[in-house]
Amino acid sequence: MQTLQTGQCGLCNHFGEHHAQAAVLVTIHSSKTAEPTLLDECGHPKHAALHLKVTPISGCDGFIPAAEA
Ligand code: SF4
Question: What is the reported pTM?
């Protein structure tokens, strides 16, 4: 497990946003930790068509905070 900082995909609203209620994502948001090897889709409109897969420790300037659980 790795601690996540604001700006990293694991804490971004676009990380796996099409299944945002999944237990793994809820756990990441509440604990602010994640397995760095996890892959999920980025749903950012500029990336979605590319089916970009990112890890919780990735990041980009499109970051918006995930809604608090
Ligand atoms: S790549 Fe950017 S927009 Fe996509 S989940 Fe990561 S921080 Fe969010």
Answer: 0.93
